[in-house]
Every structure is written in structure tokens, then in C-alpha cells.
Design goal:
The chain is of the alpha/beta class and 145 residues long. Helices cover 55% and strands 28% of the residues. The chain has six helices and four strands. The protein has a two-stranded parallel ribbon with strand order 1-3. It has a two-stranded parallel ribbon with strand order 2-4. Helix 1 packs across helix 3. The longest helix is centred in the N-terminal third of the chain and has 18 residues. The two termini are 28 Å apart. The model has no long low-confidence stretch (mean pLDDT 88).
């Protein structure tokens, strides 16, 4: 996943909820990182009318405008290494695993199963109408040790 796609993937659940709802669901650290990421994005597109409008549209309706914003962001990042470095610094090291799924009838499902995760972040958003044995995340070992 490229940096533009990763940025959009992180911000989509953030702009889809109120800050309070997001913090409650994903935690305060993830919320602060998303606020910082959005601020970095805003600052770097502020002089570009098309990019600014795409970002504002994305914030209002992420499902409809995420592709347009990702295209513009990919182009900007390719031409501005400083901007790319700023976004990468905010996102941080380690994998970003974002799972967003809607299921009508979940039977014995696991959104993410892993033996070990030593660094990175996992975001899981599930909308399940009927569940029987549904697990969001199952990780045997988390951390360096």
C-alpha cells in the first residue's frame, strides 16, 4: 500500500465519525495521530485549490471522494519529498492494518488472526447484523518479548 493510500485508509474511519466516537472506538493515541495526520495534510495542500476542495469533500463524504483525494495526494507526494517525509513521520513505523467490514450473518469469523505483532497498529471496524462466534482480532503475542 502506497503512502497516499495508507493516509486515506487511516483517515477514512476518522472523518466518518465525530472525534469523540473515534477516540472511544480506536483509542486516544490513534485519535491524536489521525488529528496530526489530517493537520499535516491540510497544511501541505492549503495553496492548491483542487487539493483543498478534494480534502474538504472527503471530510464530508469519504466514501465518494476518497479516490479523488488519493489520486491528487499521490501526485503531490511524488513531486514533494518533504511532504511525503512529513506524512511518513506522522504515520510512523510498522504495519498499518485497517479492517473495515460489514457482514449480514457472521459465523465463526475472525477479522484478523496473527501469531505475533511486535509493532504497528490495527484498526478493526465491524458492522455485523447477526453474529455467532465472531472475533475481531486474535493475536497470540503482542510486543517485543
Amino acid at each position: 500500500m502506497g503512502l497516499a493510500a495508507k493516509t486515506i485508509a487511516i483517515l477514512t474511519p476518522f472523518v466518518s465519525k465525530s472525534v469523540e466516537e473515534y477516540a472511544k472506538k480506536f483509542g486516544e493515541a490513534a485519535c491524536q495521530k489521525s488529528i496530526s495526520l489530517l493537520g499535516t495534510l491540510k497544511k501541505n495542500v492549503s495553496g492548491d485549490k483542487e487539493a483543498t476542495e478534494a480534502l474538504e469533500n472527503f471530510k464530508q463524504n469519504p466514501g465518494r471522494y476518497k479516490s479523488a483525494l488519493e489520486d491528487i495526494l499521490s501526485e503531490k507526494l511524488a513531486n514533494d519529498k518533504n511532504f511525503a517525509n512529513q506524512l511518513q513521520k506522522v504515520i510512523g513505523e510498522g504495519p498499518e492494518i485497517i479492517i473495515d467490514r460489514k457482514i449480514e450473518d457472521a459465523k465463526d469469523t475472525i477479522a484478523l488472526e496473527a501469531k505475533e505483532m511486535t509493532k504497528g497498529r490495527v484498526f478493526v471496524k465491524e458492522e455485523i447484523k447477526k453474529a455467532n462466534g465472531a472475533i475481531g482480532v486474535k493475536i497470540d503475542h503482542i510486543g517485543d518479548e
